Amino acid sequence: MFAALFISFSAAFAQTNELSNKTSGAVAPIKVKPPKTICRSEDTTGSMFPTRTCRSKEEWTAIDAANAANAERLRNSRGTAGRN
After folding, report:
1. How far is the C-alpha of 42 from the C-alpha of 47, rounded, in Å?
2. For each of the chain's 84 residues, which pLDDT tens digit applies?
3. Distances (CA, A) of 29 to 18, 26, 36, 49, 74
4. Which helix (H) or strand (E) holds 41?
5. Cα torsion at 54, 56, 43, 75 (round to 10°)?
6. Cα separation of 38 and 32, whole Å?
7. pTM of the predicted model, to two decimals?
8. Could you tell me if 57 and 35 are in contact, meaning their C-beta atoms sit under 8 angstroms apart?
């Protein structure tokens, strides 16, 4: 009785072990590359040494667009100070 029960459990275990080996090897992990960083040196007011700042291309694009918008806003408001 024990021998028959032991054989059936060992056969069932072997089948589940084979299935888990087949399914675990079929799915490969997806590798996602991090965005490439671009480093720039920036001059800091009050310091003689530049600071190196590294960001992604999308972040630099957003920073450059914000800086351009601020520069344009300052250019447009330059001649209006003190006029009513």
Report:
1. 11
2. 445 545 555 555 555 555 455 555 567 788 888 889 999 999 999 999 999 999 999 999 999 999 999 999 999 987 665 554
3. 20, 10, 21, 44, 50
4. strand 37-42
5. -170
6. 18
7. 0.52
8. yes
